[in-house]
Amino acid sequence: MSPAGPAQLRAGAARIVAEVVAHGRSLDELLAAEPDEGSARGLKRSLCYGTLRWHFRLAAVLDALASRPPDQLHPQLRALIEVGLYQLLSGETAPHAAVSETVSAARALGFDKAAGFVNAVLRRFQREQADLLHAVDRDLALRTSHPRWFVDALRRDRGEAAGAVLEANNAHPPLWVRVNRMRGDPDAAVAALIAAGFGATRHPLAPDALHVEPPTDVRSLPGFVDGRLSIQDAAAQLAVELLAPAPGERILDACAAPGGKTCHVLERTAGAAAVTALDVSPARIERVRENLTRLGLEAELQMADVAATSGWWDGRPFDRVLLDVPCSATGVIRRHPDIKILRRAKDIPNLARRQAELLEAAWKLVRPGGRVLYTSCSVLSAENERVVAGFLGKTHGARDLTAELTTGWPARAADAPGYQVLPGETGMDGFYYACLGKSL
Fold first, then answer.
1. 25-39, 109-123, 274-288, 290-304 — which is least confidently predicted?
2. Nearest to residue 50, comparing CAs of 20, 22, 73?
3. CB of 184 closer than 8 Å to CB of 267
4. Does one domain contain both 74 and 126?
5. What is the distance between the alpha carbons of residues 285 and 392, in angstroms, rounded to a whole number?
6. Per the domain annotation, does 170 fall within a domain?
7. What CATH number is attached to the domain comprising 209?
8. For residue 33, what pLDDT is reported?
9. Do 267 and 333 lie in a common domain?
10. For residues 284 and 261, is the Cβ–Cβ distance under 8 A?
């Protein structure tokens, strides 16, 4: 396939951005469906990620610039102008090229009559950039390019820390890998990565986590193909520290896909734990299977809803249950900027209800003396502290063990259950943990 030209690349990026913004499509799914364009693939991805990361700010700028109501523009044309504005703001493309190729992309998309309009908007932005941004950026939600409902909720939940979270969400995410202790040790992995020309440092809290620089195609990392390394953020790796699985135990990973935590549990127990991994989606269960196969690990896989026990559970209680609940994913916005656009305030109450249902179901599956680890990649208390507090308040024999298990971690307020990591803290994604013990 011949490589796409600059205008075609920008047109392609605009089509994808429009699908996300106007039709609520997933960025990752759209990019996965794109044909392989060789070296041009990286540029298209960068344009899509950057434009969506800054969509709310770019949209506010466009509202101030356009001579016609932007809402009346075709979604692809509006997306294309945002792509052009993003290029001018990022400085990654020479300004003249950003303007001329965006105008050419308008023609490539079939908007020949709008080419002059696109040119005029981008040229005006070049002339008035400082004044326009000064006006837009007085609003925290627009300056950090987040939906207002989320900014308001974050301020209520996290107080003064909210600003740092919003800034961290716009940073490029680091590359974290997990060392498979069945096939090596972290120090040896660090040495191998450095010998291959990468920077590699260990995480202060997650003993199996290495920060690799610069970010790269994971297949180029020494140890990935042969199963010595896996991709997993350090925050997700901390789950196994709280779950504390042991060889010989029966362990349930109740919402397992894509399988990183299932594999980590097995690695920590040298494959000697009896692990059952559930997920409701056949495609997602297949992802778990692929990860297990690459690492040479075995688990019982079942396509099932943890709450529908009659369809999968044999009645024998588990020693430990890991419940990584479906959530708003607001802790991983830096990796998935389309979350800013796809998630709505109205989603949160429904998610919280489902999370509470799953926690109650998981609790029934664990033996007396065992533990349930509730986790989410949300930063909203409605999905985290409030769900767990509600459960503890009505469940006899349930005790929050999290504080005593995280004594070596940065201090947290003692007035809420569990432990919240905010995006950017020690380089990690946003993540919540509540380790709940069942009395004998």
1. 25-39
2. 20
3. no
4. yes
5. 31
6. no
7. 3.30.70.1170
8. 92
9. yes
10. no
Which of 188, 210, 231 corresponds to the end of one domain?
231
The 10s digit of each residue's pLDDT in 133-174 is 999 999 999 999 999 999 999 999 999 999 999 999 999 999
pTM over 0.85: yes
318-324 vs 250-253, strand pairing mode? parallel
Q: pLDDT tens-digit profile of 333-366? A: 999 999 999 999 999 999 999 999 999 999 999 9
Q: Are 345 and 152 in contact (CB under 8 A)?
A: no
Label residues 365-392 b or e (16+ Cβ within 10 Å = b). Answer: bbbeebbbbbbbbbbbbbbbbbbbbebb
Rounded CA-CA distance 258/275 in Å is: 15
Q: 279 and 191 in one domain?
A: no
Same-domain pairing of 288 and 410 = yes
Question: Quick check: is 377 catalytic?
Answer: yes
Q: Which of 48, 263, 377, 435 is catalytic?
A: 377
β-partners of residue 436 are: 372, 400
Pairing of strands 250-253, 274-279: parallel
- Same domain for 225 and 260, yes or no, is no
Predicted confidence at residue 3, as pLDDT, reads 57
Q: What is the mean pLDDT of the chain?
A: 95
Which structural domain, as residue segments, surrounds residue 180?
A: 175-231
CA distance 304 to 325: 14
Nearest CA among 32, 7, 27 for reference residue 17? 27
CA 213 to chain centre: 19
Please state the separation of Cα 120 from the chain's center in Å.
37
Q: Is residue 137 part of a domain?
A: yes
Question: In this structure, what CATH number is given to the domain that contains residue 129?
Answer: 1.10.940.10
Which residue is it, tokens 């996300």? Answer: 20
Q: Is residue 434 part of a domain?
A: yes
pLDDT score, position 1: 44
Domain-located, residue 198: yes
Q: Are residues 245 and 365 in the same domain?
A: yes
Beta strand residue intervals within 291-380, DSSP E: 300-303, 318-324, 366-376
Report whether the peptide linkage leading into residue 214 is cis, meaning its omega lies within 30 degrees of zero: yes
